[in-house]
Amino acid sequence: MGQQIVNGLFLGSIYALFALGYTLVFGVLDILNLAHQAVFMLCAYVALLLVGSLHLHMFAAFPLAVLAGGLLGVVVDRVAFKPLRGRSDSNISGLISSIALATILEAAGLQLFGPDVERFPLGTVPDRSVQIGGAIVSELQVVIIAIALVVMGALTFLVQRTRLGRRIRAVAESPLAARILGVNVDRVIAAAFFLSSALGAAAGVLFGLAFNNVAPDMGRAVELKGLAVIILGGMGSMPGAAVAGFALGLLEVFTVAKLGSSYRDAIAFGVLFLVLVLRPHGLFGKAALREA
Amino acid sequence: MNLESLRDLWLTYQSTVAFIGLNGLLALSVYTTLACGQLSLGQAGFMALGGYTGAILTFHSALPYPVVLAAAALVPALLAVPLGFPVLRLKGVFLAIATIGFGEVVRIFFVNLEFTNGALGLTAVPQRTRVWMIYAALGVALFVLWRLRGSRAGYALEAIREDEPAARTMGIHADAYKLAMLVLGAALAGLAGALEVHFTFMVAPSTYSFARVVEMLVYAVVGGTAIFFGPAVGAAFLTLLPEVLREVGSRVGLQPGPLRPFVNGLVLLLVILFLPDGIVSLPRRLHRALAGRGAAAHAP
Fold first, then answer.
1. Segments forming the whole domain that contains residue A191
2. A63 within a domain of the structure (yes/no)
């Protein structure tokens, strides 16, 4: 029981980080960035290259990979979203252009790294474990949960307490009003994309470490989990995404333990469906009349 | 050219011709929901239901092929009704996410279904599809969509696409129209699924992944969703493109695997950014650009 809870929190912390990236951009732009999962995948490879080929320590490679993710996010904004801003159907066309960019990035990953699963070299992460109560917890799990919590705390502080956070919230409320008040809207949106993709990159590196598995299609599975998480938490709600991420992680681990692993993926979609039908604005979201 | 070499040519390109038609049907199935401003990304799920229905009926019954095809269109269409009621209340992004979830649930269901051999799927499905059948189905679909244009229902769909709250205020039953188009799209996807299964000899869950939906979407958007035949044109263009690219790719030394999705993605991105009405709007644009240059030359 205790073991399952630890495993669930561990999985959930990665889902939560990934989904926070989605929800940050959605909160600001009302646009879903489906290229998020490609950034997640590519940055896991960046970390792998830094550790494997340049022999960097993981604690140096992690921030570099996160930085690379953020920069990639700015590129995603420039290429797939900025040109469409102001077009009447930018909601759907943005979704489609981000699908296009995801396809391109994924194909690039496949071309550059090949279709096979790659692993971090032995000894990249400590493999000791400690016993807490009845559960055996590996140091890696502790570190990953800790990193996730620290990043979430930093993000909350950034959005709630800093100038940049205030601007992001202003643009989320009304881009027009923010522009009139002298906010450089394009730059704020680029910053939101930087943060969002940095979160996705962090999730990607941690996912690669956690399962010691980096592959060009690793983003696909997590993408759908991430969508379930933001729907459950409420689109655009950051505390919602964090709570729902942990909830989905726990739910999945318990399902595997009780029902077997073949239903593991069905759980996320079951949750997705139920929430959309029963409570479309999620646990923490606000209902909106016009979201088309 | 004698008859013999003509037949060789046909045998070589038969499957390409068939896939142009199949992809056209699939592109139209995405178009039906886009026509009223909805983005359904669950078409691969409907296609899987059609494909499996067709294969199971062919293996376990003696029904004639047209009946099998009708059933393959009907099953996903019927399932689209209860799915549509809650799901179509959702708008924009929410609908897209819900239908992604639906498509994945269908795929996972077939992966876990022992009866149809799980993830491996069924092989040695008899080849009952002839190429003309595919084009007959495509022709009927295009005819229906053509007749829809300019009709009362066609105008209603356009109104819903442009501004749904306004359309509702005008007394248009937006939900009924949206549901009808979702059902029509599901039937088209199911039909294409069954036709494909009886052409390629096999049915397996991996055929119906999210990548397949992206492909359909690319056909529809690249062709152009402002007019009903755009998606079919896009499907033809993008089905022929890999044939050309395979030649080019093998000379440049790129792996053929990633090249196809890469080019699909690139074409989709370029079209949505620079040619929002798709390649069918290209002649008109060129014409206008040339006329504009002519006018500029005459200006003092």
1. 12-217
2. yes
Whether this model's ipTM surpasses 0.95 comes out as no
Indicate the pTM of the whole model.
0.84
Average pLDDT for runs of 10 along chain A of length 292: 85 92 86 91 93 84 93 94 80 84 90 85 73 78 88 89 90 87 91 94 91 86 87 84 92 84 75 78 60 36
Instruction: Report the chain A residue with the minimal C-alpha distance to residue B221.
Output: A96
Indicate the residue of B105, B210, B255 with minimum beta-carbon distance to A111: B255
Nearest-Cα residue of chain B relative to residue A98: B269
Instruction: Annotate chain B with three-state secondary structure.
Output: CCHHHHHHHHHHHHHHHHHHHHHHHHHHHHHHHHCCCCCCCCHHHHHHHHHHHHHHHHHHCCCCHHHHHHHHHHHHHHHHHHHHHHHCCCCHHHHHHHHHHHHHHHHHHHHHCHHHCHHHCECCCCCCCCHHHHHHHHHHHHHHHHHHCCCHHHHHHHHHHHCHHHHHHCCCCHHHHHHHHHHHHHHHHHHHHHHHHHHHCCECHHHHCHHHHHHHHHHHHHHCCCCCCHHHHHHHHHHHHHHHHHHHHHHHCCCHHHHHHHHHHHHHHHHHHHCCCCHHHHHHHHHHHHHHHHHHHHCC
How far A12 CA lies from chain B's nearest CA (Å)? Answer: 19
**A169-225 pLDDT, tens per residue?**
888 888 888 889 888 999 999 999 999 999 999 999 999 988 888 888 888 878 888
Residue A280 belongs to some domain of the structure: no
Chosen from B30, B97, B109, B277 to mutate, greatest number of chain A CBs within 10 A: B97
Distance from CA of B171 to the nearest CA of A (A): 18
Domains of chain B with bracketed CATH: 3-298 (1.10.3470)
**B169-226 residue pLDDT tens:** 888 888 889 899 999 999 999 999 999 999 998 899 988 988 888 889 889 999 988 8
**How much is the pLDDT for B47?**
96
The count of structural domains within chain A is 1
Nearest CA in chain A to B216: A96
